[in-house]
Design brief:
Dihydrodipicolinate Reductase, domain 2, 2 domains, 9-stranded mixed sheet, 6-stranded parallel sheet, 12 helices, 15 strands, 24% strand, globular
């Protein structure tokens, strides 16, 4: 089998397929990829969605050449270079295996699944096949992420504090259900936690306590914890406290801050600004809104395909396993009254959080 990593750089557009054409595909990825298609770098070759009308709508809006009723047929018959997997975490089955078997590079939206054993099996197949891969941790693609990474070189980080206190809207039904999304720490805050890993390396352990409100009083009511207190210890020994709240229902004021205490400075990060010791160190007015970091991530994935992997992605599938283990480990700890949970034990399946029965293909 010839894998993408063994192919020479492309002298033609990169052929891409989509499994899942819902909210994240249409809002984040397809607009950027359609622009690359207009530049001649990409061909949007094919798409599939369980809801055919959604696939047809995406195909019409973004000029995707073919719509399929079965993703296996699409993967088998289309000569794809890369495949985007944009589906909810509870419905992963065999797409990752099929991509690996056929040597097709894989972009998998976060979170990769809610079942760690499933992700470990996918990771082994992807690594064995040698395909290019990317998990949709787009925070790594904010320019400010590399600004902080550069600032931390030569410094010793002593502590991290993250406060995300707000009344965040629920964009889809499944993102409001603990058993379908894993809760706020898994569905949303996973991005911030992955960003911390981009700066500080792997997480070793977690302890967490959650506070629940009224669980799903009606079928449509959110079924999520209202507050989360999570403490991580990185493999380097650095402690990080993550404080989340979605209970500010009557307040127009919230707080979103990521603070790093180093031996040389207090650094405050946000997508569009980096503050050091109270003074703005770096600022980019356009970085805080929209899907700009997704577009940068998409361009990086396409460039990796065009160069046969010579230009690597920032968040390959293998690297994302520790991030997922960290958030699922928080759920495990919270359900064990704050017991410390090691990431190695989560990945090895010694402790599990299993909201549904997975399908391994």
């Amino acid at each position: 089998m010839v894998t993408m990593a063994e192919r020479p750089p492309h002298d033609r557009p990169v052929r891409l397929g989509f499994v899942g054409t819902g909210h994240i595909a249409r809002g984040a990825h397809l607009p950027a990829l359609a622009e690359l298609a207009r530049e001649g770098a990409v061909e949007l070759a094919a798409c599939y969605d369980l809801d055919r009308s959604a696939a047809e709508g995406a195909a019409e809006t973004f000029s995707i050449r073919m719509v399929y009723d079965d993703y296996r047929t699409m993967i088998e018959h289309e000569p794809l270079d890369g495949l985007y997997l944009c589906i909810p975490p509870t419905v992963h089955t065999d797409v990752e295996f099929l991509a690996a078997e056929r040597g097709i590079a894989l972009f998998c939206e976060k979170h990769q699944s809610l079942y760690i054993n499933q992700v470990v099996a996918y990771e082994r197949a992807i690594r064995a096949a040698g395909i290019i891969s990317q998990v949709g941790f787009n925070f790594r693609y904010y320019p400010s992420a590399d600004v902080v990474r550069d600032l931390l070189r030569g410094s010793t980080v002593c502590q991290v504090v993250v406060n995300l206190l707000s009344r965040s809207p629920y964009t889809r039904y499944w993102t409001a259900r603990y058993e379908l999304c894993g809760g706020t720490i898994v569905e949303n805050t996973i991005h911030t936690i992955d960003l911390l890993r981009y700066w500080l390396g792997d997480i070793a352990s977690v302890s967490a306590v959650y506070a629940w409100g009224h669980r799903g009083e009606t079928p449509d009511a959110p079924n999520l914890p209202e507050a989360y207190a999570v403490t991580y210890r990185f493999a380097s020994g650095v402690p990080a406290s993550i404080n989340l709240s979605r209970s500010l229902t009557e307040s127009s004021v919230g707080r979103r801050e990521v603070l790093l205490v180093s031996d040389g400075a207090l650094i405050e990060w946000s997508p569009g600004r980096v503050v050091m010791d109270g003074q703005t160190f770096w600022e980019e007015a356009s970085a805080g809104g929209g899907y700009g970091s997704h577009a940068a991530q998409d361009r990086a994935f396409v460039e990796a395909l065009r160069t046969g992997g010579a230009t690597p992605t920032k968040s390959p599938y293998s690297d994302g396993v520790n991030t997922l283990a960290a958030v699922l480990g928080a759920n495990i700890s919270a359900e064990r009254d704050g017991e410390r949970v090691r990431m190695d034990d989560v990945v090895a399946g010694k402790v599990t959080w299993t909201p549904y029965e997975p399908v391994l293909g």
